[in-house]
Amino acid sequence: MRSRSPVLAAAAAALVFSALLIGPPPRASAAEQGDGGATLRQVGDDAQTRQLAFPGTPRDVRVETDADGYVVFGTPNCSGVGLYECRSAIASGSDASHSPVINTRNGYRISWPSSWREGETRHVGYLFSVARDWIAWWYSPNARVDLGQVTRPYAPRALTASVASKDDAARTARVTGTATPGASIRISGSPVATADQSGNWSYRLTGLSVGGNSRTFQQYVDGSYKDQETVSVTIVDPVQPDQITGDRGSATLERGKTTTVYSTYTPKRAFTTPSGRIEFTAPAGTTFAPGQDSQRGEYRSGSSWYSFGGNSLVHGSRSSDGHTYSFDLGQRNWDVAKDQKFRFGLRVETPVDVGSTSGTMTGRLSGSFTGGTFDTTATTDTTVADQPLTARVDRVDAATRTATIAGTAPGLATRVTLTWDRDGMATSRTVQPSGGTWTCDVDGLTTGVNQVEVEAFAGQASVGRTSVEVPVDAPTFDGSPSFADDVTERATVSGHGVPGAHVVLRDGVTEVGSATVAPDGTWSVRLTAPDRGGVWSLKATQTVAGQPPQVIDVPVDYGQAVRITSPGNGFIISPVFPEVRISGMAAPGAVVRLAEQGVAGSDLGSVTAGTDGRWAVSTPALPIRDQVIEATATGRGANTTRSTVSLSGS
Fold it and tell me: Which positions carry the signal peptide feature in this UniProt record (predicted)?
């Protein structure tokens, strides 16, 4: 058998060879058998009976692998006087008769078949010694060495490593990468991870410090260092909220003009590139000018303001009514230091007829930057430079239901119009302001609160609106009695009221007098006195067109009625002639007259009651018979009362 080049086994990489017989093989004796006592392989019975070369079990057998294939090492073991050559053969079993003769002394390489996957393990067969004498190649089926299981290694891959995520608060980071499958991933020689069958690996770094952190990962394959990769992790302080504060400022607006109004902010920490949004709201009655879709903004250095190097606000969006303007924060390096103020100015349009002279522009700023978040609102109080329209009540006349209203007007106002209900009907009156002030009289007001609307105009444009309440008290209405010095004169009830009003005096439901209030606001009624003394309780009612009636009490005190308290029975003897003395009580100052009741022309005397109301009359002695004496008192306001007493004859 001649030697030939090794061939790649298609299935298990087990090599077999064929023995090329040069001549008929000799028959071997028992002493000529190889290792294990098995008979050497031979060909026919007619072959030679003597074998000169004998194969034995190979020595120093091993298998080594690499990325390209595996290498079989082994020293063949042969003997015999007729030994020409000693080599090796590989077979999958005990039959090596079809295996080629190979040289394994320095290693015989077999490339990986395409069907043998990386990481797959297979049995690669047995190694035989093959001896050649001058006739043929010989091997012993039992003189073999098992080559064992062989695993195809993974192809070497370069190590990669990157930071997949980090936790600033926990000061940790997760590093992931790729390497040779099964490789040991180490840090400073200590294993931290193993690449899986796909070559992927991950590791969680802990104990990192705030700031930059570097870690070097190493790849070891089969215990040998291959390569390394360094990653950097920057740990920042945990995110802190409210890292920007909105400031409060002020601005003055001008009617009919455009004014730049600023929103100012102060950061609590330095920052570079923020992300977020800002929304501005215009003062009441004003709008933002269009065309402000990007803003540079300004930062303060010392006492001066400087523009940012680029647009700090971008993608501006103005609402349809012009009352709001929204922006994205520009993704650029702002480079703002801690406590360094920055601001944005928007152009605000103030119409000439703005109704409110004071308002507020706001700018809500929200978002985040490295290590901080913010959601704050800057407030700028605005004032319209022109003086406002005002109205006040200077005078109210409850009797005439009139009032004078005055106030200030914007300097550009050409007229002021007042609107109110006049005697229940809406009416208006226009006046021209002078020197920024105006005044106007209103009439036909009702008792209670009257609402008066005031509006100022510049030409046809309204430049201000306000209103004022005019309280009108109920008209003055009073009354009281008066008496003349002459008690025989009737009493008079007089008082104050609304000119032209009708006043009626009543005793219960009975009318006892009436009058019309004079233009000077006074009224009076002369009363016919009742035939009784004491207080006469009257009620006075005033009626005015368009007003509810007013009713007051008017007590008229006529004093006490006349009384006879001491008729003085019997005669009173005087030096001249006998007399009778009759006394009693009456209203102070009343004139008391005595008469015999039922006797025409009877006059028994008269007297005026004293200040204490006492009176007494002495009269000549009366005829001796039964009599009725009547006392008649005429008191205040011609009030007349009577009292009688019976006298028995004696």
Answer: 1-30
Closest CA to 470 of 391, 550, 355, 549: 391
Domains of the chain: 17-151 (2.60.40), 162-235 (2.60.40), 244-384 (2.60.40.740), 392-472 (2.60.40.10), 478-557 (2.60.40.10), 563-647 (2.60.40.10)
Name which of 457, 453, 369 is nearest 409 in CA terms.
457
Residue-wise pLDDT tens digits, 512-539? 999 999 988 899 999 999 988 899 999 9
Cβ atoms < 10 Å from Cβ of 505: 20
HEC string of 297-350 equals CEEEECCEEEECCCCCEEEEEECCCCCEEEEEECCCCCCECCCCCEEEEEEEEE
The answer to whether residues 17 and 100 touch, using CB atoms and an 8 Å cutoff, is yes
Tokens 């809406």 belong to residue = 426
102 DSSP assignment: B
* DSSP collapsed to 3 states, 553-610: EEEEECCCCCEEEECCCCCECCCCCCEEEEEEECCCCCEEEEEECCCCCCCCEEEECC
Q: What is the pLDDT of residue 627?
A: 81
| pLDDT tens by residue, 429-471 | 999 998 789 999 999 998 889 999 999 998 898 988 999 999 9
Name the pTM for this structure.
0.36
Dist. CA 590–CA 634, nearest whole Å? 5
Measuring CA to CA, how many Å separate 327 from each of 114, 133, 595?
A: 61, 98, 113
Q: How far lies 568's CA from each of 30, 563, 602, in Å?
A: 200, 14, 19
Which of 295, 335, 327 lies closest to 311, judged by CA?
295
Does residue 487 contact residue 589 with C-beta atoms inside 8 Å? yes
pLDDT tens track for 606-630: 999 998 989 998 887 766 667 888 8
Give phi and psi for 357, each to the nearest 5: -95, -5
Contacts 24+ apart (CB under 8 A), 103-106: 104/58, 104/72, 104/73, 104/74, 104/75, 104/76, 105/73, 105/74, 105/75, 105/76, 106/73
Q: What is the pLDDT of residues 238-282, one digit of tens each?
A: 778 999 999 999 999 988 889 999 999 999 999 999 999 999 999
Q: Residue 237: what are its φ and ψ, rounded to 5°?
A: -60, 150
The amino acid sitting at 604 is L
Are the C-beta atoms of 104 and 126 separated by less than 8 Å?
A: no
pLDDT (0 to 100) of residue 16: 30
Backbone CA torsion sign across 120, 125, 127, 131 = negative
Residue ranges of the alpha helices (H) in 444-556? none
504 neighbors 541 (Cβ within 8 angstroms) = yes
Q: Are strands 211-221 and 184-187 parallel, antiparallel or unpaired?
A: antiparallel
